[in-house]
Amino acid sequence: MSDVISSLKEIVEKYPSVLEDEKKLKSILRDYFPEDKRIQNQLYMVVDEGILEDMQGCSEIKRFKMLGYIHSLASDYGITELMAKNAIMLWVDALSITADDVSVIRDINKQTNEKEVSVIEYSDSFIDNDKITGKIYKFNGGYQRVYTGITLEKTNYVVKIRSENYINAYYIDCNGKEKLLFSHNSCEEVVSFIDDSINLSKPGIIKIGGVYAEKWSVEMIPM
């Protein structure tokens, strides 16, 4: 891959303007790698996803932002996280950006079969006969857990939280922006509401837990 990175560095140095023109960039990638369609596609999907544009001007990419890039690319293109990471890192190295290293799922079967979240179909009626349908998302864990590539329905949620110790939850979008979903500091089951300004309908990362929370459960119910 060092030859690929060297060629990309040359493109960046000689033709910096093509990084902002997708058609020209796709053409120049074909010129530089005429015999390797796989490399062309691998490099171009980072462009097509908008990741290259977002990275430009960055000197450093933190862990959660990198995870956002990886999971967004893997989800949208149906590839493994390892393949997504490798494609992104080619551009990262070509642009001489420092990036935090992250662990990823290497096997596509593990990626698609591993059940991190339980999803239950939901329907309820209210006094005024309005009916709401959707999905309940159940998270069960201990201490700190990171749920990757999470996409929820675009709606408001009420959250039921059970934990004997303090826990909180954050949503990290594909750009690495982190927003608090809820916090909980009680032995009793509590109900919380998620700020409806947070868009959970795009693939992102949900981080739930606490340092001393040995066991907890969270249910997100549409409302």
Low-confidence stretches: 105-115, 125-129
In what range is the share of β-strand residues?
A: 25-35%
Number of domains: 2
Euclidean distance between termini CA atoms: 49 Å
Tally the helices.
Answer: 7
**Major sheet description:** 5 strands, antiparallel
What is the SS-derived class?
alpha+beta
Overall pLDDT, averaged? 77
Spatial ordering of strands, largest sheet: 3-4-11-6-9
Computed over alpha carbons, the radius of gyration is 21 Å
- Strand/helix succession: HHHHEHHEHEEEEEEEEE
Q: How much helix, percentage-wise, in residues?
A: 25-40%
Shape estimate? elongated
Q: Care to count the β-strands?
A: 11
Task: Quickly describe the structure.
Helices cover 34% and strands 30% of the residues.
Topology (SSEs and partners):
Elements: H1 2-14, H2 22-32, H3 37-48, H4 51-55, E1 60-61, H5 63-77, H6 81-94, E2 98-99, H7 108-113, E3 118-125, E4 131-141, E5 144-150, E6 157-163, E7 167-172, E8 178-184, E9 190-193, E10 204-209, E11 216-222
Parallel strand pairs: 1-2
Antiparallel strand pairs: 3-4, 4-11, 5-10, 6-9, 6-11, 7-8, 7-10
Helix pairs in contact: 1-6, 2-3, 3-6, 5-6
Description:
It is a single chain. The chain is elongated and about 65 Å long. It starts with a helix and ends with a strand. Strands 3-4-11-6-9 form a 5-stranded antiparallel beta sheet, with no helix packed on it. The protein has a 4-stranded antiparallel beta sheet with strand order 5-10-7-8, covered by helices on one side. The chain has 223 residues and is α+β, with helices and mostly antiparallel strands. The chain folds into 2 domains: 109 residues, no CATH class; 108 residues, Nucleoplasmin core domain (Jelly Rolls, Sandwich), CATH 2.60.120.340. The protein contains 7 helices and 11 strands. A hairpin with a 5-residue loop joins strand 7 and strand 8.
